[in-house]
Design goal:
single chain; 205 residues; mainly beta; Jelly Rolls; six-stranded antiparallel sheet; 19 strands; 57% strand; globular
């Protein structure tokens, strides 16, 4: 279902519309909540991804896929104790709903300190888009620039306001906002994941 007002178009995303795709390295399956592909590329083709927001389970430790050319943001939404080991440091994702950011070409091996976890992933082709991942709870609010924004209720239903207008998202559901202007999102109840994607200026050669 779609609705439009004040330069903002909202499309509801039902879990029945989510699609499954294998990890690039074949180590698991991801649930695509929303994805943008270049024209001529089918869903599941890594070469054609502009951006993707997805959820996946990490049930055993192992290497992450090489996503050179992409920026990545990730947050745990179920379980805890995830650590991402790189050649130079550890990226601490032990606590849920605390996003971390890293380059897709970074060599990473996951470590699970307290059993399996589920995470949300936001990836973007850095030559085409910039990305931002936020987790809103307890009355937190953010200003969202023009672009595409996916708001996802990862664990329970969420009550929020969009430019002061109340809305609710059922657990597991999401909404896509295509905005020609900036707008504000504020949490009222529950934790909402906000994935933001904005185009980057491209120079002619």
């Amino acid at each position: 279902m779609k609705s439009s007002a004040g330069g903002i178009q909202i499309t509801t995303l039902d879990p029945a519309s989510y699609r499954h795709a294998p990890w690039k390295n074949g180590g698991g399956i991801t649930i695509d909540i929303a994805v943008s592909m270049l024209p001529g590329f089918a869903h599941g083709s890594w070469e054609g991804i502009v951006w993707r927001f997805s959820r996946t389970a990490i049930v055993t430790p192992g290497p992450f896929s090489d996503l050179s050319g992409f920026d990545r943001e990730l947050a745990v939404v179920s379980g805890r104790g995830l650590v991402l080991e790189t050649p130079v440091e550890e990226i601490d994702v032990r606590q849920p709903f605390r996003p971390v950011r890293f380059a897709g070409e970074t060599s990473i091996v996951s470590r699970l300190e307290a059993g399996p976890v589920e995470v949300v992933n936001l990836i973007g082709n850095r030559s085409r888009v910039s990305i931002d991942l936020s987790c809103l709870a307890d009355g937190a609010a953010i200003a969202c620039p023009a672009g595409v924004h996916i708001i996802y209720a990862a664990t329970s239903s969420c009550e929020l306001s969009i430019d002061g207008k109340p809305c609710e998202i059922a657990a597991g559901h999401a909404m896509r906002i295509d905005a020609r202007t900036s707008f504000a999102v504020a949490s009222r109840l529950g934790t909402a994941i906000v994935a933001g994607i904005a185009p980057v200026a491209r120079t002619s050669s």
